[in-house]
Amino acid sequence: MNSTRPVAKTAAGQESARRWRVLAICLVAGFMTLLDVSIVNVALPSIQQGLDAPAAALSWVVSGYALTFGLVLVPAGRLGDDRGRSRMFLLALAAFTLASALAGFALTPLWLVIARLLQGVAGGLLNPQVLGLMQQLFHGRERGKAFGLFGAVVGISTAIGPLLGGLIIQLAGQEHGWRWVFFVNLPIGIAAVLYGLRVLPRDGAREQSRSLDLVGVLLLGGGLLCLLLPLVEQESGHGAPWFLLIVAAVLLALFVAWEYWYRARGRAPLVNLRLLKIRSYSFGATLGLLYFAGFTSIFFVLAVYFQRGLGYSALQAGLALTPFAVGSAVASAVGGRIVHRMGRRLVIIGLAAALLGLLATDLLLATHPGEAAGMVTALPLLIAGTGSGLVISPNQTVTLSEIDAAHGGTAAGVQQTGQRIGSAVGTAAASGLFFGTLTTSGFDTAISDGLIVSVGFVTAALVVALAEVLLARRTVSAAEDP
Fold first, then answer.
1. Which among 35, 169, 296, 414 is least buried, having the fewest CB atoms inside 10 angstroms?
2. The dihedral of CA 70, 76, 78, 80: what is its sign?
């Protein structure tokens, strides 16, 4: 009997090591797709010079990626749950790498826009598989650590994008530097696919295949398109077709009704709406939507302020935002290790710190520091980034803590869709207020108004987190009261 113990320990150790290797490739894939949300912003002048691209094409190079990314998240999560997450992960990663190559070789603005749309689809297919695999392979404290590392990737990829893009263009030149912003994905993507073929777990065969609920896919996709398109158009500075928001409300209401009816007939709906009855999930998803509305808009208004208002280069603007990225990365890793003890209370601490850092940034910029703004805001941005790191990954962990791993991809897809909607709403609101103020006042007033949007959304997220904690305490008190 004793001779079997070393063998069992060795097998358990190998399985544990395999999980962390899978996590490594998931983090690489997540970093690639999320980095492409922000890295392209600083490459727009280079794209305009290299392809003689009009303003409309430039706006769709940025917003088209975010649009298609958000549209496919929920169906992608369901496909991974049903057809195999490893299989979908590899297909999506290969497609993202190929789309990056198409973008880098683009000869016309239209070619580049189409490649970016395809990139967004592939990124949207990939991300729910990343979170689904993490939900599947990790449990308890290990899951908190895994989500903590993923939260660090989210923070770093969002904040470091302008810095990395500016560095690449400075090294490769203004005319063709934008191509290397896309080509940098090729060696990483190819290596990740080959490594994934070795380490990803085999997808188990399901007893019976479930229908994809095509009507649900069309209703949800149409509703999200009508919701996001006006926000994307507003963000790009064009006239926004706001009437589509009414169409979106109708389509999304029909989607909810259809999902209930479809489930009542004994079929598997695209989204199991019973997930929303789980308090930790519904509150966490709402909190994530609100926080990402504030979190994403921070980088937009500050990047514009540093570059257009103060004359910073793309590289200098990226460096000015680096303290936020550093604080977010460190705090995410730490938060993942302690979230199992503190739960949503840790998220509340993070939201309070992020709010404090943003308010301090706004107050310091109101003193008109001029070209020294990057130095003046370094400490408050570090505090805000630290708070952000204690929000994103711990909230992800708590939100998915009560979700069955079999539905992990779909649940993650719904949650990420909310984050994408929040990002679009926040950026549209911040950019609208920022540029609206800029037409009548200077950059100093505009940046203050833009940051107020971020402060408002982060405050709303804090209210949601406090409400959940108070509701949980009331529930426990009611259960203990005879």
1. 35
2. negative
Which residue has better confidence, 301 or 12? 301
Contact call for residues 281 and 402 (beta carbons, < 8 A) = yes
Confidence of residue 192 (pLDDT cuts 50, 70, 90): very high
At 207 the pLDDT is 45
Looking at residue 270, the DSSP 8-state letter turns out to be S
Rounded CA-CA distance 162/318 in Å is 5
d(CA 192, CA 108): 29
Q: Report which of 103, 133, 111 is spatially closest to residue 28, judged by C-alpha positions.
A: 133
Give CA–CA dist 286/454, Å, rounded: 16
Name the CA radius of gyration of the chain, rounded: 22
Do residues 373 and 320 make contact, with C-beta atoms less than 8 angstroms apart?
A: yes
Q: Which two tokens stand for residue 277?
A: 């009855």
First to last CA, the chain: 51
- Short-list 420, 125, 85, 81, CA closest to 268: 81
Six token digits for residue 436: 């609206």
pTM for this predicted structure: 0.82
Can you tell me which residue has the tokens 């020294």?
372
Whether residue 15 is predicted with pLDDT greater than 70 in this model: the reply is no
Q: In 328-352, which positions are buried (b, 16+ CB within 10 angstroms) versus exposed (e)?
A: bbbbbbbbbeebbeebbebbbbbbb
Cβ proximity of 71 and 221 under 8 Å? yes
> What distance in Å separates the CA atoms of residue 108 and residue 222, rounded to the nearest whole number?
29
pLDDT higher than 80, residue 345: yes
Side chain identity at residue 24, one-letter code: A
Query: Is 98:441 a contact under the CB 8 Å cutoff?
Result: no
Number of residues in the chain: 482
Secondary structure of residue 84 in the 3-state scheme = coil
Distance CA 114, CA 73 (A): 19
Nearest to 472 by CA among 415, 418, 414, 402: 402
